[in-house]
Amino acid sequence: MAANPAPTAPGEEPTAPGSLKAPDTHSDKLDALQSQRKGGENFPLTTNQGVRIADDQNSLRAGNRGPTLLEDFILREKITHFDHERIPERIVHARGSAAHGYFQAYRSLSDVTKADFLADPAKKTPVFVRFSTVQGGAGSADTVRDIRGFATKFYTDEGIFDLVGNNTPIFFIQDALKFPDFVHAVKPEPHCAMPQGQSAHDTFWDYVSLQPETLHNVMWAMSDRGLPRSYRTMEGFGIHTFRLINAQGKATFVRFHWKPVAGKASLIWDESQKLTGRDPDFHRRDLWEAIEAGDFPEYELGLQLIPEEDEFAFDFDLLDPTKLIPEALVPVQRVGKMVLNRNPDNFFAENEQAAFHPGHIVPGIDFSNDPLLQGGCSPIPTRKSAALAGPISMKSRSTSPPARTITSNGTACTGWISTPIRQL
């Protein structure tokens, strides 16, 4: 087996630091979408239909002091766009920050999976990652005590693979039927909308006291894991047990891990309290400025692999998302590295409109009978469509697939590919 390449030293990749100077890497998705990237300063202002606009400051009127004319389609388009340019806030994970990058496997994993991005160590697969808090709204502080979301979108040649996870290896509940009740309990009290982004209130602790299965993850949330120092020093976990399928059809259970190359670090409670007031954007600012400076965050992908025939070889249920698989029993194999080297061009279009769904898998990766995973594959697309203004949400920048899509969903929209992910 080939030796794992050493982690990249900060600032050494690319040779010219700065997020706009990364070396070009070929990608079919990037090639197809390059024409949609914003260009220089000589492009004329146009309507959404491409009609040039001569005056964007004055409406059409009947004379100097007459009424505005209904035929002013530029005015109508601009106001209509303004009225619809925001989307409903996420129910959970509303506060988030994102970055683009790439993933590269250390070695071929074709012995356990036929997924193309894990089979070729020479291939760089574009990725988009969104970090988030869980409880608070979009305007809440970064440094509150909370579980953090760690969601990764792989733009593979076979379609999108969404690895949706958190910074703890397990979840609060085992059955998706309990998910709405749990979220209602952890959100602000309905009569007063307090507290924002915190869990220290009666409904949360009432729920926890009545659901003993939540206590495992509560202990993680109340530990240092609930106060990460930075997204760059935070682990990520896929939580669910998935199945890897190789070309011969053999299945292997897997749990996914992200290991930060910079190591793990946390805030202490006093630091967290001060930063919440002094710099509510602390984690967002840290991620953005590190990438702009060329100090790119890096994470190694780790796998815990268990042959499917060994499902009952342990004294706990491998498919229970409230239980971790001890690394002493099943060591984590580090199989690749992810580098985040690009900040978004447009925060709203790429971060707020980004949507992740655990049902987005590619050939070589399959579901297990994990009850939370099974339930999560159904309601999430509905929530995603509602949040992004309907089923056409697949046209948003970060959500659009890398492969050519030809559907029978009407509107004669065959083979579109929407706005781009950023260059590697």
UniProtKB/TrEMBL annotation:
It is an enzyme of class 1 (oxidoreductase). Residues 44-61 have a biased composition (Polar residues). Gene3D superfamilies: Catalase core domain. Residues 1-18 have a biased composition (Low complexity). Its EC number is 1.11.1.6. Its cofactor is heme. Residues 46-413 form the Catalase core domain. GO terms for biological process: hydrogen peroxide catabolic process; response to oxidative stress. Residues 1-62 are annotated as: Disordered. Keywords: Heme, Hydrogen peroxide, Iron, Metal-binding, Oxidoreductase, Peroxidase. One of its GO terms (molecular function) is metal ion binding. GO terms for cellular component: cytosol. Belongs to the catalase family. HPII subfamily. PANTHER family: CATALASE, CATALASE-B. This is catalase. It comes from Raoultella terrigena. The gene is katE_3.
